[in-house]
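Q: A reviewer asked whether we had any structural model of the full assembly, not just the individual parts. We don't, so I'm hoping you can provide one. Inputs are below.
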Amino acid sequence: MLDISRRQFLKGSGATAGALMLPPAMPGRQEVPQFPLHKKVSESRTICPYCSCGCGLLIATDSTGHILNSEGDPDHPNNRGALDPKSISVRQLSTSPHRQGKVLHRAPGASNWEEMTWEQAIPLVARKIKDTRDASFQTTDENGVTVNRTNGLAFIGGAANNDEDCYIASKLARALGIVFLEHQARI
Amino acid sequence: MTNQWRDLKNADAVLVCGANPAENHPASMAHINKARNERGAKLIVVDPRFTRTAATAEIYAPIRSGSDIAFWGGLMSYVIENNLYHEEYVANYTNASFLIDEGFQGPADLDGFFSGYDPEKRSYSTDTWSYQTDSDGNVLRDETLQDPQCVFQLLKKHYARYTVDMVENVCGMPRDKFLEVAQPYAATGAPEKTGTILYAMGQTQHTVGTQNVRSMAMLQLLLGNTGRPGGGVNALRGESNVQGSTDMALLYHIIPAYMATPSAAKHKDLAEYLEKETPSGGYWVNTPKFLVSLLKAWWGENATTRNDFRFDYLPKVSGGIDNYAWIAMFHAINDGIIKGMWVMGQNPAVGGPNARFERKALEKLEWMVVQEIAPTATTDFWRAPEVDPASIQTEVFVLPAADAMEKEGTIVTSGRLIQYRPKVAEAPGVAIGDIEMMDLIFRELRRLYEEEGGPLAEAILELNWSHGADFEKICQEINGYWTQDVTDADGNQVGKAGEMVANFTKLTDNGSTACGNWIYSGYWYPADDGEGNVMPAAKRRGQKDPGGLGMNPYWGFSWPVNRRIIYNRCSADTEGNPWSEDKALIWWDEAEGKWTGYDVPDFAGTKGPSDAGFNDPYIMLPEGKARLFATRNEGPFPEHYEPLESPVENPLSSVQFNPVVKVWDTDSGQDVGDNVGASDQFPIVCSTYRLCEHWQAGGMSVWLPWLAEAMPEPFLEMSVELAREKGISNGDTVVVSTARGEVEMPAVVTARFKPFSVNGKTVHQVGMPWHFSWQGLAKGATANFLTPHVGDGNTGIPEYKAFLVDVRKAV
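A: Here is a predicted structure for the entire assembly that you could use as a starting point for your response.
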């Protein structure tokens, strides 16, 4: 596997299998012409988002970035092409119609969501954070020790997030003075 | 994991206890099977249930949930009494030879307690749990391990009570089954052999979770199995990046890379923090470099020597797990202290303990913001089937997030291996990455503080946000960089302002470096993939595996400094030679005067046999030796206590459950509250667990048609014997009741559970998966309606794995 790509490897093994399994002059056998696909497919590699084995995945997407297929990455040393039911299903994770992809707001006491734009939601969210932080901010404790914290805010999550997401969350939460900071690792 | 997934193939025995890798970490099985096929290793599974992993194992031994310490203690006793421990390792690489204070007493002397217990405070004074020292402060040792006050003799005395009969009585594990496990696993104490222990939440989610894990570590130390190929103490971590999210310190008690969160009682300023958190020896002597570099990463040029590098901007805590950890946090929500909650990809309405209580607490929030990919029971808690939306005043925002394939980032496997994921697909609708949305929120917050000011507005206005949402720049900040040009004494430039540092050995405590997470330092630094291609280390996909041990050093980047097995000094003997040729990992090369081999030495590379500390492999500890005796809140040796809810009295002592845990009692006696059940009303032990076909709290699996088809709903697994007693047939709907509420689901009557005989009493155990709620294509009762609000004595992790229920057929 060191010096041959996956495609060369598959091509090579396919040729070997063909040579072994097919009779030399099978009646009616014809070379199949190559037709380019109408739907262009690109292939890329990623790591499974489920358990902590860190298996390699090959993802096929169409020209709009929609996932068409997922398979195990044969070059990945942890899984060598094998997958489990969840990792093979990642196409459905990305393309599910239940992923609404909308900014949603629920007013106090309301029975339903209302849709918002990012431009509407971000100022409202920042306002909530600031008002709660400022109202509950504690500069010193009863002994006069500087504590610079807010007890009014909590931040939780996320063990399925990337390292860089978590780093930014950790930095932002501390800058705001958040001490109720917890996530899946605790439970 | 101390080791790597691929290293499992090097094991001579694989002991799985409190995990179910065939179901929950399926890729591990190929490596385990390699050990079985090529080395003749036995796969041994110890579990209350005959799991999918047990079904493929050579040996299966049943154990009552909540009795693990009795089992591990029995194994340690077996290893010691039969002289099967790895003597050279134990005497030289652990603190077995250290003498302990004469005043120390243990449960054998004090009926279940260690010396120093204060029943009022429910905590220990640790004065007698210390090493004896001479007048210069050097620890007194007896390397023959014979002194009655040495750790080894105290350990031996402590576990002498954990006989095979006691194991059978406490665990409900038949003695022949125990011996069937003990013999092959104890055989890995031979110097040339190694065995690995795999565990997961089955060990941790108990009131004695920390001591369960310590028990495994101690057994591995006695057998000389840590720091070696095919060995280690290997936590099969639950989520794709729970290792990384922990490293980044999304927890109240730590700041990035395992430094303590500043506390008001201990750390009034930077000097006091560094004085108290910097030990006299071991690698943590570098704490000042790591902390100052973190503060420089966060507050940039505003962090200077004159202002303590803005140490005061870090919020300080006042208290511990009973004030801030998950359960305490939900009490603070319930009490109206926490008014706003910001959620990034988590679903407490399904995942939290006593979820009815925690859902009700959510109703007290003034507002909640959720970064999420799909609807969950948390995003929509205000319209759960059991509530009236009109009565809930919480304002809720859902910010639609890109999933793992729709954004760029790195994640960390159980083996500390950091791997890069590019963006490979487009997110739906207006969904964006979490970094992008946090960047938007921060910029708006900064604008508000610029305009309006506010308490300590400076912490926000001065925050170094030069990276914005630029992924590359964030990675460079985590990796660490020079903040200024630096030259050495000879005038040679060693660092150039703005360039990344190669690794954490370059970090300084004078402000000339910034680093967001010292253990990740080097992960984004250019590195060769073994084929001459240079790229950020975490992006590498090099296939080379020098030595053939599965270290794959050119694939990704394993923290720290691309080390694949931590404590790997232990892979060589006290002369620096490998214990056996087939497991040669690193060794002392006398001719070259340095350590060499197939992994990055976890040791000073040029420290030779004639140097002091040559046999001090545990470099993160001041004494350099692994601790068979170590201070934890409930004692220096793990002692068996029953779960908070248990069907039996503790057969080992009169201390029924962990004497340092807090028992919450908010709203006890009410329908929704911190209720604790008794065994006369709820006589059956229950555990929650996961399925291969679903994922954690469900957000990433219950909406997927293939997975919903494979596993459409929760179910209660119960034994044939219990079903007969209760008049229940396979497929019947049953009611599972606890002191905290009840749920309905179909019964799966199965031989996978068998009744236990515990201290002469028949004890039944049942179990159910916990992924479900009213949301999703696969839906059903939430198992955490049943679990209690009680946590481990050191970490606060909830006791999900052992609580009491009753079961009846639904009418």
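A: Points you may want to mention in the reply: The domain at 684-809 of chain B is CATH 2.40.40.20 (Barwin-like endoglucanases). The longest strand of chain B covers residues 741-750.
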